[in-house]
Amino acid sequence: MPSISSYEQLRLENIKKNRELLMQLGLDKPIFEPTEKVVKKPTATKKRKGPDTPTSENAEPDTKAQRVSPSQSTPESGVRRSSRNVGKTVNYKREIVKESPIPVAYSSGVKVAENEGPMGREDGPRRCDPKTYGSIPGIAVGTWWPTRQGCSADAIHAPWVGGISGGKQGAYSVALSGGYDDDVDLGYAFTYTGSGGRDLKGTKTAPKNLRTAPQSSDQSFENNASFNKMLQRSCETKKPVRVVRGFKCKSEYAPSEGYRYDGLYRVERAWMEKGMNAKGYLVCKFAFKRLPNQPPLPVRASLDSMGNSARETLEEDEENPEEVEDEPKEE
DNA sequence: GGGCCCGCAGGG
DNA sequence: CCCTGCGGGCCC
């Protein structure tokens, strides 16, 4: 058999290019190399900058009601879990980042102080309008939901299925669910693939009843309900975009279960490239960068079987005071 | 595990 | 109304 498939080859090429672009965009975080051995530097395990004041509200005009009442987050046995996760064994000890106030995930039946954090509702009426730019009052960065329905109920990301939600001035929110193999997630920056170019087939009796399908044509910034155009607009308007990471996202920044609100990002670039599909159809790509003055991202221990903890020198505080980055005022 | 069906929210 | 869409459950 060939030493490396063409698919894998393209994937590596795309990943390399995407990562280089992210670096050009000023990413100053350690880079996770999934395909190469992690060179462990003699890490100074000591943490500089101990007290990290958690009062960094994320550049939000209205900071009251930021607290999520913890009394609601004691579900114990009352929380329904999707059957997919039943019986799944997850070692949460490996995922906990002590420095982070954000939970990486909850576990069914396992809920300890270390991974406890804000938890959203699973359903119910909306209290806020998801069609807004920027943060949602009362929903802290790091809030976690078992399913996408909860993200929608709490107005963080409205669609139950779609990855992009937006309006005339750009996207309100996106969901990272690992649907594209060549997306690069560096935590504080990532590349994202647009939607469209899929032929939503179905069965003969129920045509178009599928929600996803393989790529069958080029994506574009114009067609496809203009989801991609929304993100292109975000790149122009620089409106903040809410980002949700899902468990399917193959990233050390993704929760192992459910979906987590990871705060506000900004679209820095929009371009097209050959995507990860057999025919080499073009896809729309976007580079996101996280806005400063937000709680640090949780990082789970490296998932590779070699046991490389690829992440030692994480916490060096970034947030250079330049660019105070208030979200552009809502017009 | 994979296939299929399903409801839903949103934008035009 | 029409269409889409990085879900989720159920059945096999």
TrEMBL record:
The keyword Nucleus applies. Residues 134-290 form the YDG domain. The keyword Nucleus applies. InterPro entries: PUA-like_sf, SRA-YDG_sf, SRA_YDG, UHRF1/2-like. Keywords: Nucleus. It is found in: Nucleus. One of its GO terms (cellular component) is nucleus. This is YDG domain-containing protein. It comes from Psilocybe cubensis (Psychedelic mushroom). The lineage of its organism: Eukaryota, Fungi, Dikarya, Basidiomycota, Agaricomycotina.
